Amino acid sequence: MSNVLKISLRNLSRQKKRSFLLGGAIAFGVLIITLLNSFTAGITDNVKENFSGIFGGHIFVSGSVVTSSGKVVTVIRNDALVEKALEPVKGYIRSVHKRSKVMAELIFASRTFIQRIDGVDWNEEGFLDSIPIVSGKLSGTVGDLKATLKGKGGRQAIILPVSTAERLGIQVGESLLARFSTVTGQRNVGEFVLVATVRDQETFGISNGFANIEYLNELLGLSDGEYQSLNIYLKNMEDIDFVAASIYRKLKSEALVEPRLNMDEPAAGKDGEPSPSRRRAMASLMGGSFFGNSVPEPWKGTKYSVVTLNDLLSSVKDMVKVLNTVGFVIFMILLGITMVGITNSFRMTIRERTREIGTMRAIGMQRRGVRNILLMEAFFIALTGALIGLLLAGVAMLILGSIPFGSSFLWIFLHKGKITFSLVPLDVAINLAVLLLLSMLAAWGPARKASRLEPAEALRTEF
Amino acid sequence: MAIVELENVTKIYPLGKTEVVAVKGVSFSITRGDFISIAGPSGSGKTTILNMIGCIDVPTEGTVKIAGRITSELNDREITNLRHDVIGFIFQSFNLIPVLNVYENIEFPLLLGKDSLRGREKEEWIQFLMEEVGLSEWRNHKPAELSGGQRQRVAIARALVTKPQIVLADEPTANLDSETGEAIIELMKKMNSDLGTTFIFSTHDPTIVEIADHIIRLRDGKIIENYRKADREAEGKKMRADADAEVSGR
Lengths: 463, 250
What we know:
The complex is a heterodimer.
Chain A lengths: L1 H13 L1 H40 L3 E8 L5 E3 L5 H7 L6 E16 L2 E10 L6 H4 L2 E2 L7 H9 L6 E5 H7 L6 E7 L5 E12 L9 E5 H8 L8 E6 L5 H15 L1 E2 L18 H11 L16 E6 H4 L1 H39 L1 H9 L4 H35 L23 H27 L3 H6 L3
Parallel strand pairs in A: 4-9, 6-8, 11-12
Antiparallel strand pairs in A: 1-2, 1-10, 1-12, 3-4, 3-7, 3-10, 5-8, 6-9, 7-8
Chain B lengths: L1 E14 L2 E14 L3 E5 L6 H8 L7 E6 L2 E2 L5 H11 E4 L11 H11 L6 H14 L15 H13 L5 E5 L7 H18 L2 E6 L2 H4 L4 E6 L2 E7 H21 L1
Parallel strand pairs in B: 3-8, 3-9, 6-7, 7-8
Antiparallel strand pairs in B: 1-2, 1-4, 4-5, 9-10
Helix pairs in contact in B: 3-4, 3-5, 5-6
């Protein structure tokens, strides 16, 4: 075997130009697919991270109760059970925040706009750093805004998406009204002062404003200690589904829980409308109720719901899927061209080395040995090309990752204004395995033909 | 004891829509330890006979028996093993593996066999052969860096490395000048007497033919002469002795 290996490697160095061209083509293919895969994985992570700032968490646990009048109220009154459910996975959790949320009709001058508003604790650590603030009169810097929110102005302060502020025609520093239903279904109005705007995320159908949780709870009619949603940040976003499943199982063992969103279900049905489970998930996150004001089958106590960022970002997933598919198609086309190159190159190699093959067969090399030499050559060309491709991809990632894109509209895809790449080892391993397999498959035909050459005939060949 | 036996061997090659009869009904046997020359002009069937003895070709008719085994009855794996274990090859164009150096080229056949020499024993044996063929100092050189005569010496060492019973050399001097050619044949003769290996070589050079102990002459695929020099000499002596006796009796 070592002999086969030695001859294969030396044959490659003897045909430097051919090996270089084949390996170069393979390196280029690997460079493209690795860049694309890492880019899409990086995009996914960045979009999740950016949205987690807007939504205020990675996993959201909310509760609903049915009042005596048969209305559904979104509220968690006693969080002992939720805390118990978090216990087994606390090692994965970075922080937990209590929030309220409401779909409010914002009124400014004669204009109105429906907007989701999250009640947050302005002092919540890292909150202001996690949302994409656009500079405003009161928020020249995040430092100024923090001072404003912690002072008296914080109670009625509101932060809105830029698009909402533009629709309403409101400027930072001006007051507006918000009209919504309390948890018991009564209408209420609150006055707010716009202190800052955040970048728009409407491309993905999600747009969020922020207000003081204490003030919002008062307007919603929630008592002290009550809240609507427990927002959980994890140390690692890859654990979202696992942790959510654990919390769901734990809650389900002791209380009523809405069925989880079926991730295998298409995001939209044939009519283009979201599926029932997705509607339920969105409703529980948006602060409304899937059931409206009445339920067909009332329940007793709190019915919980566990929703994750992954459940909500199906459009991002679709986009990533498209990018990955395009990348894979490009990879396969490049691979196809390279395979044809390998097959032709090996056919030529065999023509050139017919006498050599005849000699090796004559002095006692079995057919398998001849075949293995050629297969090894294909393997090493592919492996070297792939490793060079990976190396080039690493360099390209470093260069592209250092270019600042400033306040581009692509911010949702970026991390601190820069592209990030996330190398997924499994993807790299699969691509390498496919590449090596196809390269050897491309060389298989010529290698088999070479191994079947009759020694006498091969020795008679004049090349 | 015969190590090679050809019995009524015919070899026909297809050539387009016609056929070429390269060897017609040839029969002969070769004794272990012989130094044999198969002589004849181009197209007389020398290479075809060597290929059949070397188990890289099989006869169309008749049988070729090598070390007691009929080659046409063996499958590819068996015949490859027979070639490896029993036969060594020396080619007209040397046919060394260009990517391997002198040592590695000589070592190559040993790496193909299951029961070949290993470790220090192998090293010593290769070193011995390199010294015998005068190439110890060229150990790390590639074939492209050697002269024709040196390449053929490497080929001789490679042919002998597995300690085969038979070494076949197809026109081993054809690509060499006459002085180098004679030196190569002398080297083969030395190895024949030192190691007891049977050497069978083809040539059309009359001076080289005469170095052999046993000569088989071919023409148009048929044997026209098959004799041992020793027998001829004994016969000559006997004839001379008879003639002398006849003269003295008168």
